[in-house]
Design goal:
Radius of gyration: 18 Å
Shape: globular
Number of domains: 1
Order of helices and strands: HHHHHHHHH
Oligomer: single chain
Structural class: mainly alpha
Distance between the termini: 35 Å
Number of helices: 9
Number of strands: 0
Length: 207
């Protein structure tokens, strides 16, 4: 997984350098932010900063038009399906992306509800310091700080689990079979999926 991320960062920075040399401003040339991926506040943050131009395109042309007809969950599912297709017909990658889509949806909904209920800055997307209107933040509440750290740790757990699908073998180039992907997750007891399902049940029960 580390080699996979490192190669992605390298290609992204090369692309950014070429854009800057071509005359594009830095604000339009940033394609990845590794710090937000390696030390994420949330899975939503990882999705946004993994490939910033692609995220913007999917959000603008797939997610927003779909949400009116399909609702949030349907729009998220369609968006990740399109993303999987754009990455190629690879079951392994599609399974990871669809799992990530479900994880991010559950996390976003749960944290948004907690933020509204307790007037606390615990949403998936961090408020900017001068625009945060929440009564409780990580700076004045230990509970908020611990909650955000817990979700951050949970995000890293999910990412480590999903990242196990990627290695340096020759088969990685063409993608593993359906059975290989499922067997690998089965060896881990589908731990991340069970945690995500439990998180969804908690959200469903308290919403």
């Amino acid at each position: 997984a580390l080699s996979f991320r490192s190669s992605h960062y390298f290609v992204s920075y090369v692309a950014s350098a070429l854009l800057i040399l071509a005359g594009f401003p830095l604000s339009l040339s940033t394609t990845v932010r590794p710090l937000y991926i390696e030390l994420p506040r949330s899975l939503v943050q990882v999705v946004i900063h993994w490939n910033i131009p692609m995220h913007y395109w999917l959000k603008t042309y797939i997610f927003r038009p779909s949400i009116k007809r399909l609702g949030k969950f349907g729009a998220v599912t369609v968006t990740y399906l399109i993303s999987a297709l754009l990455h190629g017909l690879n079951f392994q990658l599609a399974a990871v992306l669809l799992s990530l889509g479900f994880y991010t949806y559950v996390e976003f909904q749960l944290r948004a509800m907690l933020a509204d209920t307790f007037d606390a800055c615990v949403a998936s997307k961090q408020c900017t310091s001068h625009k945060c209107t929440h009564k409780y933040t990580s700076y004045n509440s230990l509970c908020v700080f611990i909650t955000n750290m817990a979700f951050s740790t949970l995000s890293m757990f999910h990412l480590a689990y999903l990242g196990l699908m990627f290695d340096t073998s020759d088969l990685q180039e063409t993608g593993y079979s359906y059975s290989h992907t499922i067997d690998k997750w089965a060896q881990l007891g589908f731990a991340s999926h069970w945690v995500a399902l439990t998180t969804y049940c908690i959200y469903f029960l308290i919403k």
